[in-house]
């Protein structure tokens, strides 16, 4: 278990990495993300106004987290593949004085992470919220993703599976 505090939009939020922990309450899952591999390289997508990151997003009503990841990987990265669960980041607003009860996010929510082995790579059309996709060596990921150190811890977990 690794913890880190981050400043997201002026709010101090505690993140805790929970490797391989299975969540029993899917209603607290706020997003899903995939570390997607193709020929040993990692897929990063450039989301408008947010920079490069792993493909992912919110779980839509009626979707399972796995279904959401498959949809997000296709919409953002134009890839399909098999997935394996890695773990979750617990996102805690318990120490956030600006937290709004009953707002968009729960007091404690979870971001689920999966490893995807890409089996089909489709042409990139940029029809959704991503404007580009790139393939990088695993050791190059920190050059592109720097919103929190847990992103790199999760990458290392994915590499060992």
UniProtKB/TrEMBL annotation:
<dbReference type="Pfam" id="PF00293">
    <property type="entry name" value="NUDIX"/>
</dbReference>
<keyword id="KW-0479">Metal-binding</keyword>
<dbReference type="InterPro" id="IPR000086">
    <property type="entry name" value="NUDIX_hydrolase_dom"/>
</dbReference>
<keyword id="KW-0378">Hydrolase</keyword>
<protein>
    <submittedName>
        <fullName>NUDIX domain-containing protein</fullName>
    </submittedName>
</protein>
<dbReference type="InterPro" id="IPR015797">
    <property type="entry name" value="NUDIX_hydrolase-like_dom_sf"/>
</dbReference>
<feature type="domain" description="Nudix hydrolase">
    <location>
        <begin position="27"/>
        <end position="158"/>
    </location>
</feature>
